[in-house]
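2024-03-11 09:14:02 INFO receiving multi-entity request
2024-03-11 09:14:02 INFO entity count = four
2024-03-11 09:14:03 INFO echoing inputs for audit
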Amino acid sequence: MSTHLHKQKTAALNALLTSSQRQLVRVISESGPLSRTEMANLLGLSKAAMSGIARDLIDLGVLHETETVYGQGRPSVRLDLHPECAFFVGISLLEDPAPMILSDLNGKIIARQSMPLSRDPHVIAEAITEGLPSLLQAHPDAKEKLSGIGVALSGFVDESQANCVQSTLLGWQDVPLAKIIRERSGVETFIENDAKAVAVSEKLFGSAREIQSFSVVSLGDGIGCAHFIDGKLYRGNHGGAGEIAHCTIEPGGSPCRCGKRGCLDTVSSMKAIKEMSRAEGLECTSLSDIEYEASTGNAAAIRILHRAGSALGLAIANLIQINDPGLILITHVEGSFDGLFGTVVNQAIETNVLPRYAGQTPIRIKRVDGDVWARGAASIAAHNFLIGPNSN
Amino acid sequence: MSTHLHKQKTAALNALLTSSQRQLVRVISESGPLSRTEMANLLGLSKAAMSGIARDLIDLGVLHETETVYGQGRPSVRLDLHPECAFFVGISLLEDPAPMILSDLNGKIIARQSMPLSRDPHVIAEAITEGLPSLLQAHPDAKEKLSGIGVALSGFVDESQANCVQSTLLGWQDVPLAKIIRERSGVETFIENDAKAVAVSEKLFGSAREIQSFSVVSLGDGIGCAHFIDGKLYRGNHGGAGEIAHCTIEPGGSPCRCGKRGCLDTVSSMKAIKEMSRAEGLECTSLSDIEYEASTGNAAAIRILHRAGSALGLAIANLIQINDPGLILITHVEGSFDGLFGTVVNQAIETNVLPRYAGQTPIRIKRVDGDVWARGAASIAAHNFLIGPNSN
DNA sequence: GACACTAAGTTCAGAAAATGAACAAATCAA
DNA sequence: TTGATTTGTTCATTTTCTGAACTTAGTGTC
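2024-03-11 09:21:47 INFO inference complete, emitting structure
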């Protein structure tokens, strides 16, 4: 009974914050711990107003006091989001079995399990609902304060983060997945494209916290990309912003499954690299194998990696020219960006960017583990909790 | 005396609006005339609050009642910005002599003259100040309500729209032009990059009013580009967003004055087209001439236009893939987009965009007159008046 | 043409949110 | 110990917004 009440309260917590409180939560999630005075200045409010807002948020359990900073005058007390004021479940529909994780407001993974993947949205909703109790079992706190489910998938998602407009991988067309899961599980649910979910998780939890405009290029089996612009995820007019995989990078090149020719995807994706290797008679099952071959001087391997790296570098250079982001974050799962491929990519970026810019746009390479997608998914739920859907 | 007072009042008008009033002005400038009830809904305010805000803005002369719309119930009265509540001066530093125009809040050009171009910012400030009286002479209203000067130039401008970080054309490096002009003339001044100024003018006055995310590609002697994203001009981390002219479009192609090779600028700019024609022995002084040659079957002319068009089309297709804008607006001064060049551009866009997208992104071609840059410049001043620099 | 019906816009008392100024608290520096 | 300095709180006051009742200006019906 008490549990149920609490659940209702936290589930609606985001909704019952005033707009000033929301703004404050947003600022802290971007800047990290801040003193009340700093927050007042950032929000353009008086110290008096801040005092009240902070007190209310502390009472609600959203904020808590952290370290004390000593300077001249009375020391300031930094306030931060309470990492355990809300918990989120993230599910990646990119692999089978599908990973399912439980995370706190800092993106820390607290529990992990998996569930069978399906192409039927109702079966997915069922699997999630059945998986919840065991995921939450050892964490009574999380059970009470579960505030959202996030789902990452390969495909286009609409602006409300509720409907999958199209997914070739899952064979979907206009599937209201979020609603189906929400109704079955009783938990607020949001879905998002895989690359965009990773971008959100890097903005909330990762290495792009303080950067307002950046692009994430995520190298998995395919090539994904997403942009944050002026502190907001930019999804594009049809939700297609960041689809660099189908930029023409070799005009008149190999035919692509999308229908046109010379797409980046046909040269630089892991799938393409492996296929080209096979065609050249190389017995490679992973990028590391090919890198090894190249390091021993195998001409075919070197040629393939050069071609793939140049193409990706050129695409990223075009992205830099077009959008002038404050950071390019390249995430890769396979863990082999240190070899020839990575070198060529970096070089190709350098040579194809306006010399005045060269070196001006930081390129950060980040090796990520198998949890990226699920953590990204959870971050979508966290983002909706923190900032809300109507992110004005 | 009275004049002076009035001047002070209107100059600071923007500053003395409350944040709700500002928001309202912004919404109207985006959506066009609205009834009070519609405005209340859009801003999420009560009818009561709207009533007061509208009254104040009408008293200030910022809004006025326009048509009455009859439906069921009491008819609604649409309110619009009063076009003559503020006037702006726009100057283009792209030509010599430099055009100088006077415009109202609708972007209508009320007076026009020109001034000598200089590379010395103080001489420019002097010329503007000396030009003002004659520009305003026949318009006493504008004299009283002059609210800003905008300057468009080729180069990089910082976020405050006050400093020119770099301009190759003018030979500048960190020139605080806005401040110099402001101090000399006594009028609030803002500067902006040429392509970005055109984008703002299309958003405020032109064909992109209601579109939140779009890109403008402006074809003049060079190729400019600028993006609006979620209703805001996106300038990029170093003010370089939209620099598509130096995207590598023909890897290993002709050397470019920027230092690298195969830039779009080396194939598709008017300058490049003319140069290539000359190299091929064609006696052409304008794009129309080359178009004419092509239409009579001249192989060289056809080849040149094909190459230029394909390159520009590919660059735009990449832009679409990367940003998925709601509109691509191509503005061209030379008035010759109806021929082969235009056809090839359109075709190249189609064939290089993900087939699923093809035709989904509207491409609008707009022939503009010689006033584009000056009008764009004026729109920068208007934008700062309407929305303010701190466009939260 | 009188009547109800509908929706826009206004008014006004009261609630909500933010401010300014005075003050309490917690440290450093001399 | 005393003064300087800066954080954070309190409280009366002002600003801004809301809700409900009301006025206004039409349409539709008989």
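2024-03-11 09:21:48 INFO post-check: Chain B has 14 helices and 16 strands.
2024-03-11 09:21:48 INFO post-check: Residues 314 and 349 of chain B are 6 Å apart (CA to CA).
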